[in-house]
Amino acid sequence: MAIRMIRENGDEILRKKAREVEVVDDKIRQILEDMVETMHKFNGVGLAGPQIGILKRLVVIDLYDDNGPIKLVNPKIVEQKGEQEVEEGCLSFPNQYAKLIRPAQVTMEALNENGEKITIEAEGLLAQAISHELDHLEGILFVDKMIPGTMEYTEPEKE
Ligand code: NI
User: Fold this and answer.
1) How many A from CA of 41 to the centre of ligand 1?
2) How many angstroms separate the CA atoms of 117 and 63, rounded?
3) Less packed terminus of the chain by CB within 10 Å, N or C?
4) Backbone phi, psi, residue 137, to 5°
5) What are the Cα distances from residue 101, in Å, to 16, 80, 82, 108, 143?
6) pLDDT 10s digit of each residue in the chain, 159 long?
7) What's CA 126's distance to the chain center, in Å?
8) Is 8 in a helix, a strand, or coil?
9) pTM of the prediction?
10) What pairing do the DSSP bridges indicate for beta strands 84-90 and 93-102?
């Protein structure tokens, strides 16, 4: 288990399209576990493979609720409905936040860490997080979709 280094804005790997995972094996499970640890370490609600330099279609999400961390392999949005205006940030853009439009509801299919097919129907914050993280797999970043003029910078918290 390990905390991985997070790639930040300007790193070209964030702009590359991630590849499908062919076999969900122990190596993939280890990466997913490291991704969860890394996300928790930096208080994120989601993390995608390219953000730790791994161009595979892997995503973890944790809204810190009863669902716990969700580990996704080859996730795909199969249906989306509506719109919500949201404010969001990204672990690859420390202390930066912007407003944008995300789908209000999404239906997503993926494999879990055991290679079993799962379907998640999400709305609100979970729909937002799924949309954000799946964009990372296409090399799309939240700033590409931001409503112009809404970027805000916050001072890092002093420890
Ligand atoms: Ni992000």
Assistant:
1) 15
2) 21
3) C
4) -70, -15
5) 23, 13, 10, 18, 11
6) 799 999 999 999 999 999 999 999 999 999 999 999 999 999 999 999 999 999 999 999 999 999 899 999 999 999 999 999 999 999 999 999 999 999 999 999 999 999 999 999 999 999 999 999 999 999 999 999 999 999 999 887 665
7) 11
8) coil
9) 0.95
10) antiparallel
Measured in angstroms, how far is the CA atom of residue 10 from the centroid of ligand 1?
13
The residue among 50, 67, 63 whose CA lies nearest residue 12 is: 50
- Helix, strand, coil content of the chain in percent (nearest 5): 25, 35, 40
- 80, two tokens: 């989306």
141 Cα: distance to centroid of ligand 1 (angstroms) = 7
* Whole-number Å distance between alpha carbons of 148 and 134: 22
Q: Is 129 helix (H, G, I), strand (E, B) or coil?
A: helix
Radius of gyration of the chain (CA): 15
User: Which of 53, 54, 45 has its CA nearest to residue 91?
Assistant: 45
**Catalytic positions, written as ranges:** 133
Give 56's DSSP letter: B
